[in-house]
Amino acid sequence: MSEPPRPSRRSILARGGAAVLAAGGALTAGTGPAAAAADPSPGSALLVPSARIDLNDGSDSWIREKALQNSTVLQSFGYDSANGRIYLAQVMQGGIRLADEPAAVSGAERSRHGDLAITQWDLAGNRLGSMYLRGFGHGVSIGVEPVGPTAYLWTEVDAVEQADHTSRGTRLARFPFADGTVLDSTSPALVKHTPVPGSTVNTASVDPVYGRLVHRYSLGTGLMHYRVHDLALARLGVWDRPLAGIDEPQITVDAATYGHPAFQGYAAVGRYLYLLHGNAYGSTETVDGTEVVISRPGIGNTFLSSVDLTTGAVVETRPTKAAYTLDYREPEGLGIHVPDPAQPGVFRLGLGFASNQPGTDHRATIYGKDLLVQP
Fold first, then answer.
1. Which residues form the P68 RBP/TagC-like beta-propeller domain (predicted)?
2. Residue 5 lies in a domain
3. Is the residue at 4 inside a domain?
4. In this model, does residue 233 exceed pLDDT 60?
């Protein structure tokens, strides 16, 4: 059964168990030559034992129903723990006309073209800034890399329209957040990367504890894949030395009750990958020829899973009723927050939800878990 939110417990991880993410490094980096690296064999010893989030721990309310730059649903978010900021991605809403556009653009066209809005929050969910990205993708994941006071964002880029009229990126991009600006995928100032030549549906997430970049991608076979890279090497465009590589595992849930929950986001710390699945309240699925509700209001079908990146095995899959009282509740994104950068081994997992009250713009809600299981 799904657990109701309850008071969470804080565990302390010894400082020696995790490496500090270096905040320095080059502000810009060349992509370097594209290299096709073989996936490491499962069981790679390159990822040392590390703590993981206990998914059976209760969820705490961190931010509830705060506004984004646009009225569309939240897609993903990431933390800049060093500077106390959160960056959130969403597809641009319809009806906006940017300065160099001859007319307002519809929401459908924004989605097909891969136009995104990025919102900057403080840790309480107050809006501090925003920027627009044109031709990037759907915003399924966003990686955040702090360099001094600046946050560099890792996103998909060079969007290609999909059969469902959304778009997905064929490469990765790294760029600094710049409030009030519009960045095009064709900008010569944009640093792009091709971690796996020929890949599609590319997204990235940053592990802020161990200083790694996680790349999720497709090779057109119907499977999704993950590779873990040293973040400093990724900045330099060195992609032929992955630390780990696995296929995305299938999660096991009661399909008769919950259907097949949709993939909604990922994050990683150390040797563990976290996956988020679920659908908005009221979502239906055809089961044995009958249309049934798979995400019932007040219950939902949101599940969290942890995966061992050295083997590809699912460690645990748990339902969560975090934020179950929202009128509209759709799981959207995971993020890793380090409350005290001086103790990088003490981290928390944030769960994002698109939400709104009837007749209002979509808002964003974040709940979280902080109980760590020691290696």
1. 73-338
2. no
3. no
4. yes
